Amino acid sequence: MIEIEVPLADRTYPVVVGEGARHRLAELVPTGARRVAVVTQESIPVVVDPGRDHRVFVMGEGETAKDLSTVEDLCSQWARWGLTRGDCVVAVGGGVVTDTAGFAAAVYHRGIAVVHVATTLLGQIDAAIGGKTGVNLAEGKNLVGSFWQPSAVLCDTEVLATLPPREYRNGLGEMAKYAFLGVDDLASLPLDEAVAACVRCKAEVVGSDEREAGRRAILNYGHTLGHALETAGAYDLRHGEAVSIGLIYAAELAHRLGRIGADRVAEHRAVVGGYDLPMNVPAGLDPDELIALFSRDKKAVDAITFVLDGPDGVEPVAVEDPALLRSAFQPLL
């Protein structure tokens, strides 16, 4: 097992990576918890044993289940069962489960402990780490949520073998992002080490900026267009696939702003293409519709804000010229 700490002073917690990591759950559930609410989905073939009285609560499938009504349903079921503030929630699944169950845990009794057992590649390297929880509105992705750090995260690489090929590739879209955030030779690492390298990178960034006051925004590299594609809802894209297209768009935009050269754009295409991820926007895309959605992104405060590569690395950059945003779409159409 590889163990990494997310450094948050008195709230520091472990992330355990490796084959069979889920079997360490009982030792990582907070000692005072008498009951554990296990939240998962019908499609997830992973059974866990938290080592104490527990009950399984099944939520719906897909992004449509990641909403406020699911949070209300979970909290109501927990209340009827008698889950207390001293108990614990265990989220078993990918980002939809950890985001939703994590947010429900954050607001139930004004916050109870949560442990994530991430069962997808995307969840293990990104969604389950760092304490961002939330659900979607019709108006946009993750617009309602909170920062609620887990007590522990278990990344069992053994269960990744059960993923359909496209779901595994979905995680590679987030992994590609880390290649531009300082993780070297990522594609050449064995799976456990690659997952751990991404976790170390995210843990270091989260430890330096827990609530996204500044530096943590770099973890959203590729996500401004990615979230807009998902919010538009007309395209058959998984989150990681949308992010991979967003990475290429961000590189093209940075090139037009003079922040990077053509060779760096080519490097983005090589990394994304090396993971067999999409690099072009779907047919029928309306760039103006997506540009309008950019303003709903959580980074947008005074202007549309992108995370862009540049001479000092990846950083948030305000972009106010719609013509420039439109121009950056051309190589992706």
Structure explained in plain terms:
- With 333 residues, the chain is α/β, with parallel strands linked by helices.
- Helices cover 38% and strands 20% of the residues.
- The strands form three sheets. The chain has a seven-stranded mixed β-sheet with strand order 1-2-9-6-5-3-4, covered by helices on one side. Strands 7-8 form a two-stranded antiparallel ribbon. A two-stranded antiparallel sheet has the order 10-11.
Mean pLDDT across residues:
95
Name the beta content range. 15-25%
Q: Give the total of domains.
A: 2
Strand order of the largest sheet: 1-2-9-6-5-3-4
How many strands, which pairing sense, and closed or not: the largest β-sheet? Answer: 7 strands, mixed
Give helix % range: 25-40%
Structural class by secondary-structure content: alpha/beta
- Please give the number of β-strands: 11
How would you describe the shape? globular
Low-confidence parts, pLDDT < 50 over ≥5 residues?
none
Rounded to an integer in angstroms, the radius of gyration calculated over CA atoms is: 19 Å
* Main CATH class of the largest domain: Alpha Beta
